[in-house]
Amino acid sequence: MNRLxxxxxxxxxxxxxxxxxxxxxxxxxxxxxxYQDDDPxxxxxxxxxxxxxxxxxxxxxxxxxxxxxxxGEKETPILIAAKNGITEIVQKILEDFPVAIHDMNLDKKNxxxxxxxxxxxxxYQLLHKRTVMKDTVFRRVDKDGNSALHLAxxxxxxxxxxxxxAALQMQWELKWYKFVKESMPLHFFAQNNNIRQTPHDILTDxxxxxxxxxxxxxxxxxxxxxxxxxxxxxxxFATSSxxxxxxxxxxxxxxxxNQPAFNIFAISSLFALCSSVTSLVMFLAILTSRYxxxxxxxxxxxxxxxxxxSLFVSIAAMLVSFCAGHFFVLKDKLKYAAFPVYAITCxxxxxxxxxxxxxxxxxxxxxxxxxxxRSYNVVAN
Length: 381
Hints:
Elements (H helix, E strand, L loop, with lengths): L1 H7 L41 H7 L20 H7 L3 H10 L14 H7 L3 H9 L4 H5 L9 H6 L12 H17 L16 H8 L1 H33 L19 H28 L11 H32 L7 H8 L1 H22 L13
């Protein structure tokens, strides 16, 4: 970070960021000189009008060039920091050199385009909060005519979202596209790039493989969980229709109806039956889905989240129902020693639930988050 900040000092601007420095390669006649600020302080104010700021910050071709600069660098430090998600460097350079917001690489991509292309939500949100020349920076297109919305719809070879499952990857890609689209300036219209493609065309074309992988992943997950849900529903139905201790012949009421364990058994068996059936219905709905792009945004993740939640509830309710019903058999013989026996008996089913918890938490986190978040691994040298 310190090395990049040191490199940022090579900008050919005054430290206050008010105007470009004079260069020996500029013509000396006054007609082609850039705008000179009469303010002796050369101060930079965020309250200035956007049009005035654009006039003040116009740079000669020697500074904003498609080729390499005098040091042979193709990207300035702020562009490197933007595409790698280092918000501290981006913020520091913008504070010292406000005109650096206009920097572009050889592909005519500025910080906004690089942040969108490399899926850097923190940098993008930082730039979105700035009010100076916001419309100009966010409306920029690269040399291929791609706007920020085109790049948000484009999926490269690398998958930046560190979240398991192709379906969740697809969900976050759609969330990122929607977030960039909603954060565009007012009166922004999606235009075609140089090869006449709209952002939605790019989204459909570049996400075909990910969409297919997500559909296969959801199918396998739903099939596996639906088998477990069907088994629990079968056991829960048989348990809920059985009354421990029988019923009284004269009144037909349960013999053990006043026992606390009987009430726990009746309630838990009903919960197990209802939740297992709900889980089974959700997984069947996933299996019969059309697996379109819009389905991965909310429909399929919510169904999977509801199905897994119902499955975990049914597993827990079934275990409680089993322990409560069996307690009448062992309460006089083992008394309190029966509880460790029940705990050991429930271990196999509990292991299955624990194995599914990471997927459940990742799915919940991905569904609740409005803006996808990058995960960064810190590597110590």
